[in-house]
Amino acid sequence: MMSISGAPVHAADCAVDGRSLFEAIPTWYKYLEVDCSTGEVTSFAFPGDIWLIAIAVIEILLRVAGMIAFGYTVFAGFKFVTSRGNPTDAAKARQTLLDAVIGIGIVTIATALVGFLGNTLAK
């Protein structure tokens, strides 16, 4: 489907944005051309569009990893609270929290890079 300006419409350009699961995880066809009214893929070129699907799947995995890292942050806070002043347990909880925050930073940067790459290749 073509937009009014004549440029192809990708799932990321639709109002629905091709998202699922609490609007946090994109669909596998995010960077493919779609019909915004039905959400169906309108064109697929075998060798070239495989990379667009692979990038969308990598973005899905990175977002799931970010959710896991966030859960790990909550778990580290719980460990810190339940350490009850024990220095060894508190140090372990701090290290867990530091690891989780580093993980969130890595996932955030990687997701931004993959999203930029996907948007660049899709257009």
Descriptive notes:
The chain has 123 residues and is mainly alpha-helical. It has one domain (11-122). The chain is built from three helices and two strands, in the order E-H-E-H-H. The chain has helices at 21-24, 46-81, 87-122, and strands spanning 19-20, 25-26. The chain has a two-stranded antiparallel ribbon. Helix 2 (46-81) packs antiparallel against helix 3 (87-122). The protein is elongated and about 60 Å long. The protein starts with 18 loop residues before the first strand and ends with a helix. Mean pLDDT is 80; it is low at 1-7.
Entry summary:
The chain contains three helices and two strands, in the order βαβαα.
| Strands, total number | 2
Question: Topology as H/E string?
Answer: EHEHH
Q: Write out the strand line-up for the largest beta sheet, numbering strands in chain order.
A: 1-2
Helix content: 55-70%
Overall pLDDT score? 80
Number of domains: 1
Q: How many helix segments?
A: 3
Shape: elongated
Class by SSE composition: mainly alpha
Main sheet overview: 2 strands, antiparallel
Low-confidence stretches: 1-7
Beta-strand proportion:
under 5%
> What is the first-to-last residue Cα distance?
14 Å
**C-alpha-based Rg, rounded:** 20 Å
